[in-house]
Amino acid sequence: MTELESIAGLFALAGKVQQITPLGEGLINDTYKVVTQAGAPDYVLQRINYSIFTDVPLLQRNIEAVTGHIRGKLEAAGESDIDRKVLKFIPLKDGSEKTYALAEGKYWRVSQFISDAYTYQTVDPKYSEFAGEAFGNFEAMLADIPDTLGETIPDFHNMELRLRQLREAVSCDRTGRLAADPGELHAILSEMEDHGEEMCRAERLHREGKLPKRICHCDTKVNNMMFDSQGKVLCVIDLDTVMPSFVFSDFGDFLRTAANPVPEDSPELERVDFDMSIFRAFAAGYIRGTRSFLTGVERENLPYAACLFPFMQAVRFFADYINGDTYYKTSYPEHNLVRTRNQMALFRSALSKVPEMTAFLGTL
Ligand code: GN1
Ligand code: MG
Q: Closest ligand to 237 CA?
C-alpha cells in the first residue's frame, strides 16, 4: 500500500480505493483524486499546507460550519442533488468525527469528489455573470451563520499588512536579489509605494466604521467554482480561506483572474488587459446575488476592489520573490517576478478603467 492509500484509509470512505492521482493546480495545498470501485463515490484527498494554515482544527471548524450552514439552507429550499452543490467532508474512521488526520507530521482531509463537474481557467461573460451571482449568493447564504468564524490566516487581505511585509522583505533582502538589481526591481517597488496609500482605503473605511467585515470566500479565483455540463454553477470549492473580510475580496479576486486574458504568470505583458466585458457581466451577477445586504459604500467601492486585488497580489508575489520564493510554489527562479510584472500590468489597466466601471455600476 502506498503512503497516500494508507492515509486515505484513515477516512470513512464508502468504497475500496483503486487509484490515487494528482489533481488541480493550487499553489498552496497538494491535492489528489481518490478513485474507488464502481458504485461508490470518488474522493478528493488533500494535504493541508501546515506552514501556511497553522491552525488546522480552526480551519476545519470553519469549513464544517460553512458547509453545514449551506447544506441546511439547500435542504430547507428543497434542493435536490445536494452533494454536488456543497462540499461534503468525510470524518475519520476512528469515530472521533474529526474531518482531518495527522499522519507523520502532516495534516490531511478528504471530501467527496463532485461528479460531472468542470472547472475553468478562463470564462466568457455569460459564465462570469453566473459566477458573480453564485459568489454573491455564497456570501448571502453565510450572512446569518450563527458560528463565529476565525481568520484562518489573520489579516489575510489586509493591504496595510501586505505592504509592511513587502517593506520588511526589502529591508532584509535575504537573497540579495534587490542588491543585485540593475533597476527594474527598484522601479517596481517605487510604483508600488506610489499607490500604496490609496490602495489601503478599505482598512481606513473599516476604522472609520463605514465598512463591515462579512464572511467571504477570499480565494474566488475562476477555477474555484464548479460548473455542471450545461454551464450552471454547482458550487464553490477551496474553502480554506473562508473568513471574515471585506466583500472586496471576493469581487476583486475573481476579476483578477477572470478579466485577465492571460494567466497570472504569463510573461506576455502586452496581452494583459482588464477586460470590461467580464467586469460588466460579473458585476451584474454579483449585484443581483448580494441585493439583500450590500451597502452603498461597498457598492461604490467595487471599482477600487477591481484594482486592489491585482495590486495586492503583485505586492505578495514581489515580497515572496525578494524573500527567495518561500511561500508560493514556483517552477523557475524568476517565476514570482514574472507574476509580479503581470499583476502590475493588470493593475494599471484596471486603474485606467475605474471611471468606466463606476459609470457601468450606475446603470445597474
Ligand atoms: C493561492 O492555493 P491557491 O492557488 O488557491 C493563495 C491566494 C492567491 C493565489 C494566487 C492561502 O491560492 O491568496 O491569490 O495563490 N492562497 C493563499 O494564485 O495564500
Ligand atoms: Mg484553488
A: 2
Distance CA 293, CA 307 (A): 23
Tell me which residue has its CA closest to atom 7 in ligand 1: 219
Q: Is the pLDDT of residue 221 over 90?
A: no
From 221, 222, 225, mutation site for ligand 1 pocket: most ligand atoms within 8 A of C-beta:
221
Task: Say how far apart CA 105 and CA 140 lie, in whole Å.
Answer: 37
209: left (phi over 0), alpha (psi -120 to 50) or beta: left
Give yes or no for residue 180 having a pLDDT over 80: yes
Question: What is the average per-residue pLDDT within 260-276?
Answer: 97
DSSP string, 128-192: HHHHHHHHHHHHHHHTT--SPPP-SSTTTT-HHHHHHHHHHHHHH-TTSTTTT--SHHHHHHHHH
Best CA proximity match to 113, nearest among 64, 211, 61, 40: 40
d(CA 328, CA 245): 22
Q: Which cell numbers in the block locate residue 308?
A: 486592489
87: its cell numbers: 462540499
